[in-house]
Specification:
By secondary structure, the chain is of the alpha/beta class. The protein folds into two domains: 3-234, Rossmann fold; 248-359, Rossmann fold (3-Layer(aba) Sandwich). It is 31% helix and 19% strand. It has helices at residues 3-18, 24-27, 64-69, 95-109, 126-136, 159-171, 260-267, 285-296, 320-323, 333-343, 350-359, and strands at residues 35-42, 79-88, 114-120, 143-146, 180-184, 187-190, 195-196, 205-206, 214-217, 220-223, 248-252, 272-277, 300-305, 326-327. Strand 3, helix 5 and strand 4 (143-146) form a beta-alpha-beta unit. The radius of gyration is 21 Å and the shape is globular.
Length: 360
């Protein structure tokens, strides 16, 4: 099937879903529409399969112009311009794309005529990318990520309506100052709070600790709360002059764990470690001893949890004060890694890193 056929199918799916643009007339303001720039990175939303009823597909088959053309209803609520940042599955997301994306977001946000930015992204690592941008985007303007669990060619593809709703949120004045948002399956998440909970379900993304920021129903937006933690224009982190990010590794704790992987990660160049601990960020006595030994050498070591929901607080079952460790608070291992990498752009003590984990 050709890319042209993918686009035609994409248009047909959205047209049926939106029933001639339900909700768009309520969103379009009188006069000039707001300018929203779409930055495409690839992912399932731009993916395609040989059949509309098969699980396997190839990410990143459609370009940004095809994505925009396939959702004509979005042009009734914003003037859209697209740019292709990358075209990869988000399992292949990397620092080079992150730095390029962050730079472009900040450039666009500084333009007075740009009111918001939509980023299309694969769902595998959308929580990491959104949280990264939440910490380094220096703007109060809406930055909205979206994606899909089903490729463009799938029966009941979810990408078209997700894209439409993301544009609506990015174009809305009510989205200003709310940090980086993620719009998927009618829900609006804060970048600091969402996580992927199912490998295949369309309603895979949840914000289990703090709840949704809001909802969006065919472009009609209802906000419930402000995002948690410091973000965007209030963030202390800057990428000015940054060409590389420090290496931080995540190591999962398990029964009979020793310190071999902890020591190997540091030997391989890790400047910080995040342990996806059992329960409340726990690990075996031998692994904890190895972790504490690395902390004495200046490696920043963060205790998070492999458990899906919950906080890891200081000094609950592990004496963090004595061992020089950091507790991840409400950050899961993947978000703890993002935050620690940015923190380590400067020389930090464990106490300063703990302060960062409590504020962001």
């Amino acid at each position: 099937m050709s890319k042209r056929h993918f686009t035609l199918l994409f248009v047909a799916i959205l047209t049926a879903a939106l029933s001639s643009g339900v909700g768009s007339s309520r969103l379009a303001a009188q006069g000039e529409l707001p300018n929203v720039v779409v930055l495409a990175t690839g992912g399932t939303i731009a993916g395609a399969a040989a059949s509309d009823v098969q699980a396997g597909y190839t990410s990143g088959q459609l370009g940004v112009d095809q994505l925009i053309a396939a959702v004509p209803q979005a042009k009734k609520i914003a003037t859209l311009k697209g740019e292709q940042i990358s075209n990869i599955g988000s399992q292949d997301m990397n620092d080079e794309v992150w730095l390029k994306l962050a730079k472009r977001v900040n450039e666009l946000a500084a333009m007075p005529n740009v009111k918001g930015v939509v980023i299309t992204h694969g769902t595998d690592t959308i929580e990491e990318t959104s949280y990264f941008l939440n910490l380094v985007a220096k703007t109060d303007k809406p930055i909205v990520l979206t994606g899909s669990m089903r490729p463009a060619t799938a029966l009941s593809a979810d990408g078209p309506l997700n894209f439409f709703n993301a544009v609506a949120v990015a174009a809305s004045p009510e989205s200003v100052g709310r940090g980086v948002l993620v719009v998927l399956n009618d829900w609006v998440h804060g970048a600091a709070s969402l996580t992927k909970t199912s490998t295949t379900a369309v309603q895979t993304f949840m914000s289990p600790l703090s709840g949704l920021v809001g909802t969006v129903n065919y472009g009609k937006i209802e906000f419930n709360r402000a995002p948690v933690g410091r973000h965007t224009s209030k963030s202390e982190f800057s990428l000015n002059g940054v060409t590389a990010l420090p290496r931080v590794d995540i190591i999962m704790a398990h029964e009979n764990m020793d310190g071999a992987l902890i020591d190997a990660a540091v030997a391989s160049g890790a400047k910080g470690l995040v342990i996806a601990g059992v329960g409340n960020g726990n690990l075996t006595e031998s692994a904890l001893k190895a972790l504490a030994a690395q902390a004495t050498k200046g490696i920043i070591c963060v205790r998070a949890s492999r458990v899906a929901v919950g906080r890891v607080d200081r000094n609950v079952e592990v004496d963090d004060n004595k061992l020089g460790l950091v507790a991840s608070q409400d950050k899961n291992p993947q978000k703890a890694r993002v935050l620690l990498r940015l923190a380590l752009l400067q020389q930090r003590t464990p106490a300063d890193v703990q302060r960062i984990f409590e504020e962001y």
